[in-house]
Structures are given as C-alpha cells and as structure tokens.
Design brief:
The chain is of the alpha+beta class. The longest helix has 11 residues.
Length: about 80
Amino acid sequence: MNIYVGNLDCGLQESELEQIFREYGEVASVKIIKDKYTGKAKGFGFVEMPDDGEANNAIEELNGKDVNGRQMKVNKARPRTEG
C-alpha cells in the first residue's frame, strides 16, 4: 500500500521516516518530495508498505503523531490525477 505522509519537518531525512514506519512492519520504499529547483523538502512524502494490514496499522497509529514538533498527517495515498 502506498501511504501519504504530510506536515513533515523539512529537515526530516528519508532514513528517519523509514525508521518510524519500520516499527509497524516491512517498508518497501520511502520518498520525501523535494522542490526540483531548490532541492528543499516540500514537507510531504510517500511510504510504500507491501502488507496492507501493517500499512493500515501504521496509518492508524502514526496519523497525528508528533515528530520534530509537527503532527504528521498519515493516510492512504490517492492515485495521482492528471491536470
């Protein structure tokens, strides 16, 4: 399952985000979205977890969790729409 993670601290590294989610199960990939011009993190990213049960548990447990002084917004990623 692809999971959207928002309201991230801009200094958070992908490895740190992976560690947070790894407590809930296997993590296939982590991607923090960066501005293509400045290279700065945009404050959101995506975590891919192969097991839907573990992914749902992570979403439930981590949504609203305080990380570096910011409450993460965590939910199932919606497919990207064109336009």
